[in-house]
Amino acid sequence: MNKSIVPKLVSTMQQLIIDPRQQILDPWHWFIAWYDMVPLPSMLVILEEKFFFPNGYKFGRDSTVVVDSSFTSIALKNK
């Protein structure tokens, strides 16, 4: 699975472009369709390292993510 499907999922997620004016969600739906078949750690690596944080951003040990009660604001605070 990791040698055949995961590279295709990575490629698919790299092709996904976020554009609220003309959003095409086909790549996202294809990615999510594999959720029950691909190991969760592999899915998380694809989302974190290849899509959401492609430049290797990691939260520091002294950082806390703070989300407001309405989930409209997210902040990163250092201790």
Quick rundown:
Residues 1-53 form the GCF C-terminal domain. This protein is an alpha+beta fold.
Would you write up a description of this structure?
With 79 residues, the chain is an alpha+beta fold. The chain has one domain (5-78). Helix content is 41%, strand content 13%. It has 3 helices and 2 strands, in the order H-H-H-E-E. The longest helix is centred in the middle third of the chain and has 13 residues, at 40-52. The protein is globular, with a radius of gyration of 15 Å.
Class from helix and strand fractions: alpha+beta
Oligomeric assembly: single chain
Q: How many domain regions?
A: 1
Please, what is the average pLDDT? 77
CA-based shape: globular
Strand line-up of the largest beta sheet: 1-2
Which strand-content bin applies to the residues? 5-15%
Low-confidence stretches: none
Order of helices and strands: HHHEE
Number of strands: 2
Largest sheet: 2 strands, antiparallel
Count every helix, treating DSSP H or I runs of 4 or more residues as helices.
Answer: 3
Helix content: 40-55%
N- and C-termini, Cα separation: 40 Å
Radius of gyration computed on alpha carbons: 15 Å
InterPro entries: GCFC_dom
Domain GCF C-terminal: 1-53
Protein name: GCF C-terminal domain-containing protein
Pfam families: GCFC (PF07842)
